[in-house]
Design a protein that fits this description.
about 180 residues, alpha/beta, Rossmann fold, 7-stranded mixed β-sheet, two-stranded antiparallel ribbon, 9 strands, globular, Ade_phspho_trans, PRibTrfase_dom, Adenine_PRTase, transferase
């Protein structure tokens, strides 16, 4: 089964000109969801992974399942103000303004190997911020993995230039 065929495209959402790649249609399909989780688990089985970090919010869904299958812990990276307790945060640029993601200050131990996972990579700002947080806590980013890559927006390229390995299960061009 082609997972790309299970991802719905919603034109002009959340604003005109955006092609929103909606994974809820993939997630509701039991075999499609299983295929995504299995493909990611297969890729990282045997690798040194101590934790899976998922980015809010769709990264939580697949990230937790992958962590479970790999037998490792799961750590959420959330938007500002959503985590209780001591957190470490990092601001990143948006098209207009900035946003912030946070992680618990005790979520990653020094020298842990971390798989960073999200549903989609566009410009790479959120993934870069999450990777920086992992490194500030002393962790090593094994790879930044995504269900969907949008190569026209340059996020994976940006992460690779910064020294991070990237992987996407499927790619969508702007014209698709």
């Amino acid at each position: 089964m082609n997972i790309k065929s299970l991802i719905r495209t919603i034109p002009d959402y959340p604003k005109p000109g955006i092609q929103f790649r909606d994974i809820t249609t993939l997630l509701k399909d039991a075999s499609g969801l299983r295929q995504v989780v299995d493909a990611l688990v297969e890729r990282y089985a045997g690798a040194k992974v101590d934790k899976v970090v998922g980015i809010e919010s769709r990264g939580f869904i697949v990230g937790a399942a992958v962590a479970y299958e790999l037998g490792v812990g799961f750590v959420p990276v959330r938007k500002k103000g959503k985590l209780p307790g001591d957190v470490l945060g990092h601001d990143y640029a948006l098209e207009y303004g900035t946003d912030r993601v946070e992680i618990h200050s005790d979520a990653i131990s020094p020298d842990e190997h971390v798989l960073l996972l999200d549903d989609l990579i566009a410009t790479g700002g959120t993934a870069e911020a999450a990777a920086i947080l992992i490194e500030k806590l002393g962790g090593h980013v094994l790879e930044c993995a995504f269900i969907i890559g949008l190569p026209d927006l340059g996020g994976e390229r940006k992460l690779r230039v910064l020294g991070y390995k990237t992987f996407s299960l499927c790619q969508f061009e702007d014209s698709e």
